[in-house]
Each structure stands twice: as C-alpha cells, then as structure tokens.
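BUG: 3D viewer hangs when loading the predicted structure for this chain

Environment: internal workstation, default settings.
Expected: structure renders.
Actual: progress bar stalls at 90%.

Input used:
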Amino acid sequence: STFSISIAIGRLRSFVKRFVVTTSNLRGGCPLMNTAIDSDDGNQRLRDLAREGFAEWRERISAIVEEGIRNGEICKGTNARRVANTLIATLEGALMMSRLDGEKAPLKDAQVTLNAMLDQIAYSRGRFMVDVAGLELLYLPAWPEVTRVIEDCRGQERWRGATRPIAEAVV
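Structure tokens produced before the viewer hung:
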C-alpha cells in the first residue's frame, strides 16, 4: 500500500533518501551540475538554463520548509533558502564524490548529516532516542507523530532477523 508523507520534515527526509538510493541511468553524473560547471565561462544560454533549474529546485525545497514553518512542524526563524541551498549543495557534492570514488559512502554520509540537520530544525514536542550498537540512531516521538515513526522505521528489521521493512511490520 502507498501512503503520502504529509509533514514537511518527512517530505524532506524522503527527498534526501530518494536522492541517495536512486541510481541514475545517465552516464557522467548530474546533467544540471555538469551544465552549470561547464557553462560557467562559456555558453550564457546554458548557464541561464542551469541557473533556472537550480532556482526551481531551490524554490520547491524552500516551499516545503516554509509550509512546515507555517504548520508548526519546523522551528520559526529557520531560513528556508539556507536549508534548500544546504540540501542541494551537500547532495550534489556527495554525488560528485560518489561518482569519483565509485561507491555510495559519500552519499550515505551526506544523508546522515542532512538528517541530523533536519532533526535540528524540526519542532518537536519531545522524542526518545534509541541507540543500538552497530545500527543508526532511531528517534521516536513522545506523541503520536505516526508518519515520522514510519519514516524512521523504514530500515530492515535487522535486530529481529526479519527481512521485511519495519514499517510493514508495525502497520
């Protein structure tokens, strides 16, 4: 079954996760970043197109952050543009490093760091941290924030030896 993530932080986490786990069929990396770099002192039209592409991406992410602020999901005073620029720059840089190294480690490291940043801007009524040696930290809310629990529990149930995602086991 499919469900939608209605909260801003969940949508941003989902965006980061999709960027990290989705393998592109395009050779040579991100066409938007490649165009931006290759056109920096050359073709003005290509540079304008790349700038427009990044601006649209930034605006979509900023809109999610601003919606989260309005809905009380993201702390007031959070700079939406800064969050969007950080997400884009971190993921694009990690993609470039991942392509050079031939491994996913830079992307996975970026995901951990960006999730920590999202934890910092999330307005929380309190949550518990579950720390199990050898596994990623798991944050559980102290109040019914179901979509966050499902998003955090998407990993495999390694600690129980099961093979289905925890979200399916919980729901």
